[in-house]
Design a protein that fits this description.
single chain; about 270 residues; alpha/beta; Rossmann fold; five-stranded mixed β-sheet; 9 helices; about 25% helix; about 35% strand
């Protein structure tokens, strides 16, 4: 996608990292997720995490700008386009540009939006991107949003005469254009997700990145003390949802656990 900031054109496709540089933590989180029928990679970039989603989902939709999908670039060591690479590599993956994706039904159980929001220089388009993800989740769906919240380069740019402070990040000009690198903390990411109309199920920080797992507000069952969610996988590496120590589940929840639809419900509860 392209944005304007301080007179510069921001081309977010230039910020995409190669498939050879995934976060091992996020990779493991995705691979440990419960199997889903359909998953979404929103702002897929150079397909850094698509292959891992394809292992846990029966079908994966990858979404980005038409420029990013159609231009010839280096993907996994090959000179090709995203559309061509996807068609040849994964039979269960399909690429959509933003316009095409707007006509896709809300059916996804798991959505990933990785390092997308921090490449967008303004708050409004960030919230709109989150809303697009939320509008395409099904009734049990959750979205994982992740951004870098700190990086050694951020400190280096503070002393770089070419870099400009803009909003919550830095503009780095080059040949009349610029790249934008936003610094979005965990609390700020939570606020963006909430303002977009989603419910924060869980948030955490690992390494230099912040994570927010969220669901649509209408898909959350609330009680005075707890929120019950349908089958949501806990993050890897020890981050787990907690069960309240002394609160007994309601009679209705007990019946749901014993009934034939038990596998549709999560038996864990999340402290609000």
């Amino acid at each position: 996608m392209h944005y304007e900031a301080a007179g510069f054109e921001i081309r977010t496709e230039n910020a995409a990292k190669p498939v050879s540089q995934p976060s091992t933590y996020l990779r493991d989180w995705l691979l440990s997720h419960l199997a889903v029928s359909e998953a979404l990679d929103y702002g897929c970039g150079k397909l850094r995490y698509t292959g891992y989603l394809a292992k846990v989902a029966g079908f994966v939709a990858v979404v980005d700008s038409e420029i990013q999908l159609s231009r010839v670039q280096t993907i996994a060591g090959l000179q090709t386009s995203i559309r061509e690479f996807v068609a040849r590599r994964w039979p269960n993956v399909r690429a959509y540009n933003v316009s095409e994706f707007s006509r896709v039904a809300p059916r996804f159980e798991l959505a990933l939006c990785a390092n997308v929001l921090s490449a967008i220089p303004q708050k409004g388009p960030r919230i709109e991107a989150i809303r697009v993800v939320a509008s395409h989740l099904n009734q049990a769906g959750v979205g994982l949003f992740t951004v870098q919240s700190r990086n050694s380069y951020f400190k280096a740019w503070a002393s770089d005469p070419k870099a400009r402070r803009y909003g919550d990040g830095w503009l780095v000009p080059s040949d009349g254009r610029a790249s934008f690198y936003g610094i979005i903390t965990r609390p700020k990411l939570e606020r963006l997700v909430s303002e977009a109309g989603m419910h924060v199920v869980k948030s955490w920080v690992h390494g230099e990145s912040s994570y927010v797992l969220a669901a649509g507000r209408s898909r959350v069952i609330t009680s005075p003390n707890f929120v019950e969610r349908r089958r949501v996988a806990a993050p890897a590496c020890g981050d787990r949802f907690t069960r309240p120590a002394k609160s007994a589940p309601s009679r209705q929840v007990k019946e749901q656990r014993r009934g034939p639809g038990r596998d549709q419900f999560d038996e864990r509860f999340i402290d609000r």
